[in-house]
Recover the amino acids of this structure.
């Protein structure tokens, strides 16, 4: 997996097709999954390709912060 500390080397890697403004994002330890959140859902992405990897829906309020557990 890519090194999340230097992901993309300062260049654009992918443009994510989010339908609403992104309010929060986190990258998994090891850099294999990127999570983004808007006001109602968390979306999971492959950061190397920009392809969708899943989603978590059903929130009744804004998602303003998130994090991955290192384990």
């Amino acid at each position: 997996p890519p090194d999340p500390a230097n992901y993309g080397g300062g260049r654009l890697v992918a443009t994510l097709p989010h339908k609403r403004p992104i309010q929060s994002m986190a990258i998994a330890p090891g850099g294999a999954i990127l999570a983004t959140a808007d006001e109602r859902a968390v979306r999971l992405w492959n950061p190397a390709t920009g392809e969708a990897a899943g989603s978590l829906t059903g929130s009744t309020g804004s998602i303003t912060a998130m994090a991955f557990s290192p384990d």
